[in-house]
Specification:
The protein is an alpha/beta fold. The chain is built from 31 helices and 26 strands. The longest helix has 23 residues.
Length: 872
Amino acid sequence: MRVPPGLLAAHAAGHTIVAPSTELAAALFDALERAQSEAGRHVWTTPRVLDFVSWLRELHGRRQLVDPDSRRVLSDAEERELWRAAVRDTSVARDFLDPGGAALAARRARRVLGDYGIPAAALNLDASEEVQAFLGWNRAFERRCRELQCISTDGLLGLAKPIGTITWIESPQWRPVVRQWLLRHGRMLEPPARTAQSSVRIGAPSPASEAAAIAEWAGAKLHADENFRAWICIPDLHRRRAQVVDAMDAVLAPQRFALQEDFTAAPYAVAGGTPLSDYAPVRAALETLAAGVGSLPYPKFSALLRSPELQESGDEASAAALLDVALRERATSEADLATWLDLAERVARRHRLSPVAALQRLVQVREALAQTRGAQPFSAWVSAWIGALHAGPWTSRHRWSSIEYQAAQRFRELLGALATGDAVFGTRSQDSALRVLQRSARDTAFQPQTGVPAIWITGQLIDPWLNYDALWVAGCSDDQWPPPIAPIPLVPIRLQREYGVISASAATQLAMALDLQHRWQERADHCLFSHAGAGDGSSSAPSPVLPKVSPAIDAPPSAATRPHWRTLAAAAPVLESIWDEAAPLFSPEERTRGVSTLRSQSRCAFKGFAETRLMAQPLEQPVPGFNSRERGQLVHHALEHVWSVLADSTALHELPPEAEQRLLDDAVRGALAIVRRSRDPGPRWRRRERVRLQNVIKTWLEIERRRAPFTVEVLEGSVRVARFAGLEFRTRIDRVDRLADGARVLIDYKTGAASADWRGERPDNPQLPMYALLLPEALVAVAYARVKAGDFGFVAESARGDVFKPRSRASPLEGQSSFPDLVSIWARRIERIAAEFAAGRAEVAPTLKACKTCGLQGLCRIPAALEATESP
C-alpha cells in the first residue's frame, strides 16, 4: 500500500493532520510510520495525526496553560453522569424503564444540533412531549455546566483557534458545521484516486457463512502475497463481532487457541474496540472492588479467591483451590467480604493449610478499602481503589501481556479523569461511586495499540481514504443497502431533513450510499460486495444500487461456519486410541469409603474407582439455610435423642403431650447445636429449621406408634468393620429394633427419595444388604425409614407381614424362600462387587439411573452418560 504523496508532504512540513474519527487517524498514522520504515529510516519525527475531537481537546489544554480563566472540559464520564442527572431529576424520568438510555439519546441529539447547525430555538415550535423533555434536559445540562464552570466537548469548536498549520483529509464523515470551520482554518487534502479493476457481488446463505467466506478470501490472499492489504466493512459489526472474530481466527489465527504458548500477532484487527470492562485486568479490578460493597454470594467470593490475578504461581493457585474446597463445607450462601475473609482464615488454620497468598492479598484489599468510609469526594474513593488494586489483583502486573498492560493503563487514565470530577460527582458513598466507575468502564470502548495489520475490519460506513489491494463490504442486500432511515430521537424529523441530517431521509441515505460506492471503487484494485440470507433457508437479493460490473457469484461451498476449535481438530494429527478400563490392584495402603465405595462400584465401575481411589467428588454448593445433607444429619441427631430417651414403643405410647413437646424441643435444640458446629447459616435459618424439624419428627412418631411393639436395641451404633474380598469397609448402622418375639428389624433413615434400590445383581445401593450381613441373627426385615415431609413411611424387604403394621405385607424376597436365603444371595453379590473393585475393574458401564446423579461426566466422557444427564 503506497502512502499518498500529499500525506507525506504534510507530515514532512510538520503539519497537524486531522481526521474525522480515531479509526481513520490510526490508519493514517500507521501508514506514515510504515512509509518511514520502508524508506530505510531508523529515526523519524512522530507523525502528528489526531482525530478532530482529540485535537480540539489538545488546543484547549494549551489555552488553559496561558489563560487560567479558561473553563475545564468535561470528560466523557462526567458528561454521561451530568446527562443522567439532568434526566433523572425530572418528573418524566419516572416513566422510563431506562433513564440511562434517555440520557444517551439526549446527548446524541445535542451533538446533532451542533454538527448540523440546528438552532435550539427552532425546536420550540414543536410541541411534542419528547422534544419538550429534551429541551428541558438540555437547559438543565447547560445550567449545570455554567455552575461548574465547565464546557462539554461540543462547545470546544466555538473556542478553537488553530496553532500552526493543520491539514484535514477530505471525507464524507465531516458534518457541515465542522467542514465549514475546516475550510476557513485548514488545508484540505484530497484522497488518492484509482479505479477498481473489478467489482464482484457475492451471495451467502447466512451471516455466518458470509463471515467465513470473508475469512477464507483473506487467508487465500495473504497466502498468495504476504504484502496483501485489505479493508473490510461489516456495517452490523457491533452485533456480529464474536461471530466475525471466530471466523477470522479459524483461518488467520488458530494459534490463539492452541495449547502451546504462541503469541504470534494475528494478521487482522477488528476496529471499534470492546468495552474496557471486558479486559482481564479491568474486569478483575471491578470484581475486586465490587466485593467490598454489600453482601457477596459465595460463588463470587470463590471465583475471587481463585482468580488468576491473585496467584503468582501454580502452588499459590493450588492453595487457593484447596481452601475453597474446605470453605464450601462451612460457608453460608452469602456474607460481606470481611465475614468471608474471617471465616477463610479460621478454616485455613483448622485445616493446617499453608499461608494462602490469595487470601492474604484479599485481606490487604479489605484493609485498603476500610480506610475510607462514609460519603467521600470521588478523588478519595479513587485513591482507596488504587491502593486496593495494587494490594490485590494488580500485584502480578509484571505478567501482563502488552494488551493487558494497555487496558490497565487506560483504566488508570479513566480513574484519573474521575478523580478530577469532585465538583461534578459531589460526595458519594462507596456503592454509588463504584456504580459510576462500572458504568464508565462499560461505556468506554478500548482498542489496543497493535498497529494496523494487513486485514482491517471496521463497522463504520466510511471512506477508507487510503488505497488498498482489495476492499470487501458486507451486508449489501436490498433491504440493508442503502441503510434504512434512522432519524435521531428527540429532534423533530422535519428539522433533520431541513438541515440535511443524512440518516433522516431515504434521499440522503441513497446519496450517501452512491457516494461511498464511488469512493470505495477508487480505493482498491478489487471491490467485493456481499449479501447474506437469514440462515433459515431463505435467500437475499443484492441491492439494486450496487455496481453491476461483474455477474453475481455465490460464496464458495467451503465457506461454511468454522469455529476455531473445529479448525484445530481438523488439523490435528490422528492419535492412536487405547481402550484402558483396568486400574491397578487395590493396595493395602489405600482405604475404602465404606458402603459408598460398594454403592458407586455397583452403579458404575468407573464411578467406584474415581470416587474412592481418585477422590473425585463434587464440590459443595453453599445454599441459603441448611442444605439437604445437613437436614439429613438433623433428623438423625434428633431421632437419636428421642429414642435414647424412650428406648421402646411402650414409652412412646405412654408419652403425654406436654412431655412429648419437651422431648421434641430438646431433640431439635441438640441436633441444631451439633450441626451448626460445622456450619451455621444464621439465627433466621435456625428458627425456621427448628419449626420444620419439630413438625417432621412429631409426624414421624405418629408413624412409629402404628407399628407392632418393639424395643430399640442398637441406636447409631459404633463403627463396624465388614470384610469382603479381603477389603475392609467401615460403616455405622442407624438403628436395630427387636420385636416382641425376639426377631430383629434393621432400619436406616432417609430424608430424601427412597425406593427398594438394593435389589438385582447390580443394586443401586447395597447399603441395607451390607448391614444385614453385619447383623444376620434373627433378622426378619430391613427397611428405609422415609422421614420426609409429605411422604412418610417404610420401604422394606420383610419376611413377615406384621413388622410394619397396619399397612405391611411380606415382600417377594427376590424369589427366595426365607430371609436367611436372601441374605446369602446378598453376601455373594456384595463379595463379587468388592472383588471387582479390589481387582481394579474401572470400565465406564453405568446402570440405567447411575448417570443422572453422578456428576463425573467430565472424567468418563461417555456420550450415553452425557445424554442421560441432559434428558428431561
